[in-house]
Amino acid sequence: MSQVENRHSDMGLSDEQVLEMYRTMLLARKIDERMWLLNRAGKIPFVISCQGQEAAQIGASYALNLDKDYVAPYYRDLGVVLAFGMTTREVFLAAFAKADDPNSGGRQMPGHFGQKKNRILTGSSPVTTQLPHAVGVALAAKMDGENIASLVTLGEGSSNQGDFHEGLNFAGVHKLPVITMVENNKYAISVPLERQISSESVADRGVAYGMPGYQVDGNDPLEVYRVVKDAHDRALNGEGPTLIEAMTERLTAHSSDDNDKAYRTEEELEEMKQKDSLISFSQYLRDVGVLTEEKEQALNKEIDDEINEATEAAENAPYAEPEDALKYVYAEKGGE
Amino acid sequence: MAVMSYIQAVTSALKDEMERDDSVFVLGEDVGKKGGVFKATEGLYDQFGESRVMDTPLTESAIAGVGIGAAMYGKRPVAEMQFADFIMPAVNQIISEASRIRYRSNNDWNCPMVIRAPYGGGVHGALYHSQSVEAVFANQPGLKIVMPSTPHDVKGLLKAAIRDDDPVLFFEHKRAYRLIKGEVPEDDYELPIGKADVKKEGDDITVITYGLGVHFALEAAEKLEEDGISSHILDLRTVYPLDQESIIEAAKKTGKVLLVTEDNKEGSIMSEVSAIISENCLFDLDSPVQRLAGPDVPSMPYAPTMEKYFMLNPDKLENAMRELAEF
């Protein structure tokens, strides 16, 4: 019998909840892996991955109120949007650019999330533009006396953009309920961290905007949960915004169009794999007796079936009509 | 009917809309206690409080971006850029975000936001307090650009912009703020965005313009009238998307067209108006389409000699209109 301490109970997480978190992490990973297969088989033109960042994404999402809070995700946040309620089938509809893709009806590249019914703000390709949007949501909610928070996520490369600084400063001045989580995977495509920022950490930047900044192990979903939960409590108590830097790994190339072997060594890639949160969290759940070999197998089977079904459904779903490209530039007469 | 200045019409529209709809709020630099550097938001802070008349940090991109977020949430923000010249840091938010939110989300999200900005020269504002920036935004489907000329149009169009379900750039000519006065109805009224307006009927030549150019054209037309030249003047009011039907109709009416903008000539709004006329009116024209515009230099210089050289005035319009009439 292992002597591993049960950490999640102390955080107020039930066994069911941590198992659900693990399931969502595994689902995100397996969807992502399927995307690469489809891309390499020539079936979808583009993939941009969440692999290596699932723990941060799911740990943060489950610390929020998934029925009320808003999120402004970035392109790697498959784990976040799954936690917020996007279905596997919807993710594949986007990958295949089909008409029923709820993100954009097949208009945007995969990874450009948005789904109003789940309060996932629509996103674009220029990075960090979503940060002021999350601040605006928090401002509007505060004006209405709605006790909710917004979460915005981005990569550490994006933390050099003006909108990062303008947005955090705005949130700090007006003490808005915004949680900003930088998923630091240490690369902006090929440019390593030390060529991107000169401060000790991204979290250090929080002090300049009057908010606490915390660095957290992004491979540990429970630690991310704890820190984001704390930030959420502060937000709802009117104590203002928080900056969180989750240290993660990027287990894949930047995208399906990138070859990271050109700028990362085999040793480095091998080292990253040792830190894979899917392995460590699965081990933790076994150690504390929440997960068993049988349960894990059943879970894998269930997810594989879900992904197979979603892939097939999305592949067979219709594209938008060509002239649908003309729709929805402005509000259309006679209702939307 | 009350007589109001152009800027009073701005304030009056904002006040009415904020009284009518709690979701309308104003944000920008110095818009609160000070009431704006031009006093466009004067009195609103006292009436509606600081949360609805919000002084922001000096950050144009965040003013636009925070407004976009609030609009997606369901508010109707009216953001002020202190000068149109300073809108440039917000271009990414306006073009990449606001203009594309409805389209890229396949009609799931929308962005009902207004961005107001004073533009235009003739106020000793030099390069960075005089510019016309509309052409930067005038090929971005998803945006609407309104540039009214009279207090009546300001009020009706600003109300329409605030009630619009899509993002609207509302450019106010800063020299018109106190120079131009006019009658404004007391009752609640809205004018249609996307519709040009005939400001004067005439038979010999057509002038198509917007903003302060409308007043210069009217003044010049009065002088030409003494010599028996009758001018037809069309005020575009919305410069994007353009009211093609009214442009074609006005061009065909006289067959002689002068297009007037205070902006630099090449690539201006008038380049597109000219293209619309050439596509549709070939056999109705009696002369080549003429353009009167600023020279193709970066912007308006400070020294009065050079500023006057750049800027439109009634004399320049009169000369150009007379030349066209005599063609």
TrEMBL record, chain A:
InterPro entries: Alpha-ketoacid_DH_E1_comp, DH_E1, THDP-binding. Keywords: Oxidoreductase, Thiamine pyrophosphate. Residues 22-323 form the Dehydrogenase E1 component domain. Its EC number is 1.2.4.4. It catalyses: N(6)-[(R)-lipoyl]-L-lysyl-[protein] + 3-methyl-2-oxobutanoate + H(+) = N(6)-[(R)-S(8)-2-methylpropanoyldihydrolipoyl]-L-lysyl-[protein] + CO2. It comes from the Bacteria. It is an enzyme of class 1 (oxidoreductase). Its cofactor is thiamine diphosphate. GO terms for molecular function: branched-chain 2-oxo acid dehydrogenase activity. PANTHER family: 2-OXOISOVALERATE DEHYDROGENASE SUBUNIT ALPHA, MITOCHONDRIAL. Belongs to the BCKDHA family. The branched-chain alpha-keto dehydrogenase complex catalyzes the overall conversion of alpha-keto acids to acyl-CoA and CO(2). It contains multiple copies of three enzymatic components: branched-chain alpha-keto acid decarboxylase (E1), lipoamide acyltransferase (E2) and lipoamide dehydrogenase (E3). This is 2-oxoisovalerate dehydrogenase subunit alpha. It comes from Alkalibacillus salilacus.
From TrEMBL, chain B:
Its cofactor is thiamine diphosphate. Its EC number is 1.2.4.4. It comes from the Bacteria. Keywords: Oxidoreductase, Thiamine pyrophosphate. One of its GO terms (molecular function) is branched-chain 2-oxo acid dehydrogenase activity. It holds the Pfam family Transketolase_C. Coiled coil: none annotated. SMART domains: Transket_pyr. Residues 4-179 form the Transketolase-like pyrimidine-binding domain. InterPro entries: THDP-binding, Transketo_C/PFOR_II, Transketolase-like_Pyr-bd, Transketolase_C. This is 2-oxoisovalerate dehydrogenase E1 component beta subunit.
